[in-house]
Design a protein that fits this description.
Elements: H1 3-40, H2 56-69, H3 97-100, E1 117-119, H4 126-134, H5 176-179, H6 181-184, E2 200-207, H7 210-217, E3 228-230, E4 249-258, E5 262-263, H8 264-271, H9 275-284, H10 292-295, E6 301-303, E7 309-315, E8 327-333, H11 336-339, H12 348-364, H13 368-371, E9 382-388, H14 397-409, H15 417-425, H16 438-443, E10 447-448, E11 450-452, H17 456-464, E12 468-469, E13 472-473, H18 485-494, H19 505-510
Parallel strand pairs: 1-6, 8-9, 8-11, 10-12, 11-13
Antiparallel strand pairs: 2-4, 3-4, 4-7, 5-6, 7-9
Length: 521
């Protein structure tokens, strides 16, 4: 072989290797371009956010703001033996406020070492407080001034022996500025300067409901000038009377707002589980929001980020603690769709209004049981409606509407009422009424003459807590909207109270709600 041909062969081999390398580079380039395109080209289900450059000076300013608001390092949790940690003594269930001690969860510098509770005040609204601080509209060091905010009704929340049973609210919560005045007073004035806050407030109000106006017009309720009063005439801007419109009536009530405060050992015992399991579940299934549930077993009080309750009292609040007075009660769980907007798929609003009317009649001494009593002169009693924030059986409104969709798309039969909820939520009810009677014990109630409720769970919880229930009754059939008959029949079949109606499995299959197709939207 000549040297020329040998050289040519070598050159060809080198060229082939170069071409192979080039092809490989082209393939790699194509892959990279495809990856870049997939990252930069939005898909129908993915929107690529447009980066908004933050000026360096603006970013530095935000950092300085954060340091001003929170000058210390991030404190993820605390431990019992940690330096400077000294929880204020607290003995739950003590008969006096001084023996019990204040509940302290504030993270203000003056109070932080003395915290004896996990969580934050105001339940779910604590998130809005945090947002206000971040936006600069609220000073994180601000301590409220509670001058002239004391309870407007002295007969509500009077200390009584039944307070020792309470585990889900602070019975002293409405008296905090009074009974813990020294602890709250500034150090300059001889106090301890601690940030202690009320968890209950008590006030008075008039309520106006169109349904009550109609009941008065029909003669079912009477205007007595004390419980039910005629409203002021309506006037135009110039002061002249509005003609042709009845201003209706208004109802005089006392009311109390209550935030939940849990004594963890008592709550665990009430549910029949260990305190350790309760703490672990609360930590794990709130996304790890409260690590001190795990790291601070010495702290026994927790302020859960949930809605509270409101107490409405019709008549003299002192009668709540008087067993000789007739007492009518409804414990009502929130239903925004019905209570506020009148949705007819359930009986919540009709039942609530009916209970208010029964409470008014009892307060006026005009309840049927009072009128038929052997007493020559019917005596006024007291009515109470307790409104819990447990929307959609504590499953939430989003879950509730998803269940509505499933029901309406599958025939909305009473036989599938509870199973539809279980398919979506995994459980049919999460209200767990074991804690509910605590507010009744706070009010000093020892017996209920008229329980306006069909719920077997509520009845069992009340009676199980030691409160006598003399009579219970369901909603009158004429108040049940047609589309909510599904709910009523399903509840009766599952064990809810009914004064007369019995529902069989065959009845459940025949009871169906309104189909969407039956109504034009």
């Amino acid at each position: 072989m000549s040297s020329t041909s040998s050289t040519t062969q070598v050159e060809n081999t080198v060229l082939e290797q170069i071409l192979t390398k080039l092809e490989s580079l082209q393939i790699n380039q194509g892959v990279l371009e495809a990856k870049i395109e997939s990252l930069t080209t939005p898909t129908p289900t993915q929107q690529v956010p447009i980066p908004i450059p933050v000026p360096v000076k603006e970013a530095e300013k935000e950092k300085e703001k954060e340091k001003t608001l929170y000058p210390g390092r991030v404190l993820l949790t605390t431990y019992p033996s940690q330096h400077s940690i000294s929880p204020y003594p607290l003995t739950w269930g003590s008969p006096t406020s001084s023996l019990r001690g204040p509940i302290i969860c504030s993270r203000l510098p003056s109070t932080l070492p003395f915290r004896n509770a996990i969580g934050a005040h105001s339940g779910s609204y604590s998130i809005y407080r945090a947002l206000s601080i971040a936006l600069g509209t609220l000073d994180p060091r601000y301590k409220p001034d509670y001058t002239k905010t004391e309870p407007a009704v002295e007969a509500l929340g009077v200390p009584c022996p039944s307070w020792s049973k309470i585990v889900s609210l602070d019975p002293w919560g409405h008296l905090v500025p009074v009974v813990f005045e020294k602890e709250m007073r500034d150090k300059e004035n001889g106090g301890l300067g601690l940030d202690i806050r009320p968890s209950i407030s008590i006030t008075k109000a008039h309520i106006k409901l169109k349904e009550i106006d109609e009941s008065v017009k029909r003669g079912e309720l009477v205007v007595d000038g004390k419980i039910v009063m005629a409203s002021e005439p309506l006037r135009m801007d110039d002061g002249s009377l509005v003609q042709g419109i009845d201003p209706g009536v208004e109802v005089n009530v006392s009311k109390a707002a209550v935030d939940p405060i849990w004594y963890l050992p008592g709550v665990a015992q009430r549910f029949g589980i260990s305190e350790s399991l309760l703490r672990r579940a609360l930590f794990e299934d709130t996304g790890g929001m409260y690590p001190e549930l795990i790291t601070r077993p010495d702290i026994k009080v927790f302020l859960p980020p949930i809605g509270g309750l409101t107490v409405y009292v019709f008549g003299n609040p002192a009668y709540l603690r008087d067993p000789s007075k007739t007492l009518t009660l409804r414990v009502h769980d929130e239903c925004n769709g019905s209570d506020v907007f009148g949705s007819d798929i359930c009986t919540c609003k009709p039942y609530l209004v009916y209970a208010i009317e029964e409470s008014i009649r009892t307060a006026q001494g005009k309840h049927p049981d009072q009128l038929t009593s052997p007493s020559p002169q019917p005596q006024p009693g007291v009515g109470v409606v307790i409104y819990f924030r447990k929307e959609g059986r504590a499953l939430g409104e989003v879950t509730k509407y998803l269940v509505y969709n499933l029901r309406k798309r599958t025939g909305d039969s009473a036989s599938r009422y509870f199973s539809s909820t279980e398919l979506v939520a995994g459980v049919k009810d999460m209200r767990f009424q074991a804690l509910m009677p605590d507010v009744l014990h706070w009010l000093g109630i020892t017996k209920v003459d008229n329980l306006v409720s069909m719920s077997d769970m509520k009845y069992d919880a009340i009676v199980g807590s030691g409160i006598e229930v003399r009579k219970r009754y369901d909603i009158p059939s004429y108040l049940i909207p047609p589309d909510s008959q599904v709910e009523i029949d399903a509840k009766i079949a599952s064990g809810y109270f009914s004064s007369g109606k019995q529902v069989t499995q065959e009845d459940l299959a025949r009871t169906v709600g309104r189909r969407w197709e039956e109504v034009e939207h």
